[in-house]
Amino acid sequence: MSPSVRLQEMIRVIRSARTQCEERGVIQRECAAIRAQFRQADNVGRSHNLAKLLYVHMLGYPAHFGQMECVRLIASPRYSEKRVGYLGAMMLLDEKQDASLLITNSIKNDLSHSNQYVQSLALCTLACMGSAEMCRDLAPEIDRLLRTSNSYIKKKAALCAVHIVRKVPELGELFTTAAHSLLSEKNHGVLHGAVVLITELCEQNPESLAQFRKVVPELVHIMKGLVMSGYSPEHNVAGISDPFLQVRILRLLRILGRNNDTASDAMNDLLAQVATNTDSSKTAGSAVLYETVLTIMDIKSESGLRVLAVNILGRFLLNNDRNIRYISMMSLQKIVQTDHNAVQRHRGTIVDCLKDPDASVKRRALELSLALVSAVNIRSMMKELLLFLSSCPPELRAQAASGIFSAAERYAPSQRWHIDTILHVLTTAGADVRDETVPNLIQLITTANELHSYTVHKLYRALVADISQQSLVQVACWCVGEYGDLLLRAECDDTEPVQVTEDDVLDALETVLQSHMSSPATRGFALTATMKLSTRITHNVDRIRSIVSIYGSCIDLELQQRAVEYNALFKKYDHMRAAVLERMPVIDKTSPGHSKGEMTAGPVQERDQTQKQPAVETVSQESTNQASNLLDLLSSSDDAPQSTPAQPHSLDACPTSSSSPEGDLLDLLGGLDLMPAPSLTVYEKNGVTLRLQCDRQMDTGVSITLSASNSTDGDITQFNLQAAVPKCVQLQMKAPSGDVLPARAAGQLTQAILLKNPNKVGLRMRVRVSYCSQGTNYQDTVQIDSFPSVAWQ
C-alpha cells in the first residue's frame, strides 16, 4: 500500500474532486492508509496522520478509529504531538465516550506541567469535554491554578471553572474565594473570566448572591475605569474600551441589583455615566448601551434613569441597522406596561417603523403601536393603523385587524366612530378578521338606536360596491333585513341619503345569494334578510316569496331548512309572519350565549332568535290552534296541526305544567329564554377568572362554555385551555374565540365544549389553564367535580 500523502496535498486532491463519489474514494484510500500507519509501532508521523483524520472528520466522514491515537498523543512528552492529541480529543471525544476516562490522568499531570502552554492545552480540553466525574477529580487542581501568578493560566482556569460549575453546581463554593480575588487583577482577560465565573456562580446558586453583592463597589470601580479611560490600542474596539468586558460587567450588575435596593443605589450613578458617555454610532457602543438599558430596567433604578433608558431605545429606533431597531422595539414592548408615558414620547418614530420594508420589524412595530393606543391618542393612532392595514403584508393583516378591534372597543370616543372604524377594517381586510367580529358588530349596532339609519345606509352602499368581503356582506345583510324600512325612507341626517327602491334592495340581496363568492353562512344571512323584508316593504312580497321558494330544494341543508320554514310562514302561518319577523331586541353582550366569540354561528342564532323571541309575546294573544301551529313551525314540520296537545317538557324555569297547548308552549320556550344557563366559577387566580356554564342540547349531549376574564392592568397573552374527561364521555372542543385577554375586564374569551354523555353519569372534567402575564408564564390544572345539575339530569 502506498504511503499516505501530506495534509496539504490531501486537501488539494479532495477539493479538486469533481463528484462526491470521487471525493469519497479519495477519503477512503487515505483513511485506509492512516489506519495502517496507526497499527505500526514505530510510526513517526502520528500527529500528521491524526491532523488529516481531523480534517476528514470536519468534512462529515467517520473518524472514530482515531480516538485511541488521541490518547497516545496526549501522553507523549513532545508538545507538537500533545497539541494535536488534545485537539483530536476535543473534536472526537465527549463525556459519553469511554476513551475520555483514559485521558483524566494525563490532564491532571499536564495541569502541573512547568510549561504554561501545556497547562493551557489541558485546561482547554477539560473546559470543552470534561465529564462530571472528571470535573470532580480535577476541581482542586483548577482552584490551585486560579491562585497562581500567571495571568495567562488564570484566565483559562477561570473559564474552565465555569464549565465545572455548570456540570457540578455543588462545586461552586470551592471557587467563591478565588473568583473574588480575581477582581483585583489588571489583566482584562483575567477580569473577563472572573466576571463570567461570578455570573455563573450567582445563577447556579442563589445563596451566592448575598456574598457577591459585596463586590458591587469593585465592579463599579472597574466599569468606571473602562468608561473614563483614554485610548488603549490593546483593548479598543471602534472607540470603545473593551466592550466585551463592559457588557459582561453590566450583565453581572443586573443580576446583583435585581430586587436589592442597596446594590441598585450603588450602581445608579455608574449607569447614568455609561448611558451619557457611550457613543452609539458604532455597533460596539450600541451593545454596551443596550446592556445598560436592560440593567436599568431590571434593577430598582430611579425614575429619571428609566426615562433615560427609554430615550436610548428611542435613539436606537433611528439607527440604520435593522437589527438594532428590532431589539429596541422588543425592549420597548416589555417596558410599555410599566413606563407607558415615557414610551409615548417616541410614538412617531415607532409608527414610522410600520413603513419599514423588513417584515420582522413591521411585526414588532405593529405590536408596539397597538400597545401605545390610549384614550388620548385613539384618533391619531387609529388613522396610522388603518393606513398600515391597507398596505400591510397578508401575514400581518389578521393581527392588525384584531388589534384595531380591541383598541376600538376599549377606547372608542363615540359609537359612530366605533362603527365607522370596524366597517373600515371590514372593507379593507374582511377576509382576515376573526369569526366573532360579525356578532360583535351586530351587537354594537343594535345598541346604537340613533345610528340605525346611518349604519344601514352606509352598509348598503358598501354592499352594492363590493361583495367579496364576506364579514362585511354578512353584517350588511343583517342590517338591511332589520332596518330595511329606514333604508327605504331615505331619511338620514348624518350622511347623504340615497334614494333606494324596493327592487334595488332585493336585487342586492339576490346578487349575494347567487354569487359564487358567497359562503353558505353569507347566503343564510342574505336569505333571512330577504324574508324579513317581507314585513318591511309593501309591493314586492310576491318576489320575496319566489326567491325563498327557490332555495327549498337547495343542496345546502341549512339554506334548505330555512327556505322550507319561511315557505311555511308564507303558506300556513301568514297571519303570524309579522310577529315572528319583527325587529330583534337589543342584544345583551353579557348575557349567556352572547359573550365574545359565542355568536360565531351568526345566521343560525339569528333565525332562532327571530322566531323564538316574538313567539313568547304572541302566545297570550293567539288561540289554542295558533299555539299548536307555532309549535309545529319551530319543530320544522310541514304536517297539519294536531289537536292533541304536546307533552310538556320538564324544565326548572317553569313552576307548573299545563295540559293545554299554550301551557306546553310556554313550558318549552320559557325554559329557553327566561332561565339563564347555570354557571359556576372554577378558577380564580392571578387576576384570571374562569367560569363554566352548561346548557342541555339534546338527550345525550351537553354544551359547556368556559368564559375567561382578566381583572389585571395588563393584557394577558397566549391564553390556552385544555380539557380531559372520563373515557365513557366523548369530548369535542371547538375553536376558542382568541388567545388575548384584555385588561380590566374589557372583554372575555370563550371556549365551547360539546360533551356526549349517553350513560348520564356524573360528569368530571380536568382543565389545564396556561397563559402569559407581564412576561411570566403560568400553568394551572383545575379539577371540576361539581357541575350544574342540568349537565347530567
From TrEMBL:
Which stretches are tagged as biased composition: Low complexity?
630-639
Compartmental location: Cytoplasmic vesicle membrane; Endomembrane system; Golgi apparatus
Domain GAE stretches: 675-788
The signal peptide here is: none
What is the protein's membrane topology class? Peripheral membrane protein
Which Pfam families does this UniProt record tie to the protein? Adaptin_N (PF01602), Alpha_adaptinC2 (PF02883)
Residue ranges for the region (Disordered) are 587-662
One cellular-component annotation, GO: AP-1 adaptor complex
The protein, known as: AP-1 complex subunit gamma
Protein's organism: Scleropages formosus
